[in-house]
Amino acid sequence: MKSIDEINFSGLNVLIRVDFNVPLSNTKEVTDNSRIVAALPTIKKVVKDGGKAIIASHLGRPKGVRNNEYSLQHIVPEVIKCLGQNVQFVSDCIGNDVENAVNQLNNGEVLLLENVRFYNEETDGDKSFAEKLSQNIDFYINDAFGTAHREHASTAVIARFFKGKAVFGYLMASEIQNVKRVLDSNEKPVTAIVGGAKVSSKIGIIENLLDRVNNILIGGGMAYTFAKAQGGEVGKSLVEDDCLELALSILSKAKDKGVIIYLPTDSVNALSFSNESETEETSIGSIPMEMMGLDIGQNSITEFSAVIENSKVILWNGPMGVFEMSNFSTGTVEVGNAIVKATKRGAFSLVGGGDSVAAAKQFDLAKDLSYISTGGGAMLEFLEGKVLPGIKAIEEAY
Ligand code: AMP
């Protein structure tokens, strides 16, 4: 496979699939431009080489219907601002208007296509729609890590029309490289911190990690299912009763494989799911009947921090408690601080998959961690060991 740096795009019509699915305000202004910023290196490379950068993306879920609310035209000013050059817009992603707009484009110029999800064929992974997208295009770049887990027309199916002429953009390449650095690490110990609400949504990750890491720290709502499975009293805490057996089987599989699973020993409890509620710290297996556990306690923080600080490679997926409420954010903040300390000492740290990314940003930890993934669902599936269609499609183009 070729890397983007091996290609000179001079004079080529280059279709770049990015993930510009950015949040918009009521007045349709971009409220967080991170996804645009993340795609800039790839767009700039094509522009610098003197290629024509033709950008395709989705925005929201218009469900196959043309709907101005989800028009990518809204984001053109922000893309111009981020890129520092003019960006043209065409109000379709296939057909004559696109062909004309591409023909009028000069080398080094940028054209943004309308939302690919205005066609149902996009999410259906329709081959003839993918072929239409490929018309007039010399080279295909996939830089949309956020949708790499979808087998859509513009993210995967299209690559079959670009044999030997398809590469990952810089963002895709770095997401892949950084996850592999964790999952295939030669450096040890590797520690995974898995938190969040439910065991059921993280089971795939934990099972995949059992073959790849040395330690797994479990926190968040899912810890209470483990505590109950081991015979503890967890009061009104979040528990998935249908996962109790599963929790025990994870613990026994881990033992067989020599992976150490650390569960919280104590818990910060409240009478209700509210920041105003009275709190009390108890051992995690003796939570009063009328209380619910909403964060890991001080002993757990101390124990988890020691494991983290001794690790060479760290993966963080999921908060340790209800970090959105200040009274239950300490576990998440302190675990984050321990990861920062380890990183400053030379460990490699990756935060990926949803709410731990939000937490790392909220508590200003992101800048001191090695890598923050941009893909929520895609990163979760990657960590589960699944083959992502967007990655496979480029690999198969060779
Ligand atoms: P996830 O999307 O599965 O990573 O879950 C993240 C959510 O889990 C966050 O919104 C947290 O507020 C929530 N969470 C973390 N700990 C707990 C807990 N002890 N009880 C209920 N919800 C929790």
Write the topology of this structure.
Layout: E1 13-17, H1 34-49, E2 52-56, H2 76-83, E3 87-90, H3 96-104, E4 110-113, H4 120-124, H5 127-134, E5 139-142, E6 166-168, H6 170-183, E7 190-194, H7 199-209, E8 215-218, H8 222-229, H9 244-257, E9 260-262, E10 266-270, E11 279-283, E12 292-296, H10 298-309, E13 313-317, H11 330-344, E14 348-351, H12 355-362, E15 371-372, H13 376-383, H14 389-396
Parallel strand pairs: 1-2, 1-5, 2-4, 3-4, 5-6, 7-8, 7-13, 8-9, 13-14, 14-15
Antiparallel strand pairs: 10-11, 10-12
Helix pairs in contact: 1-2, 8-9, 10-11
Adenosine monophosphate binds at residues 196-198, 201, 220-221, 238, 293-294, 318-319, 321-322, 324, 354-355.
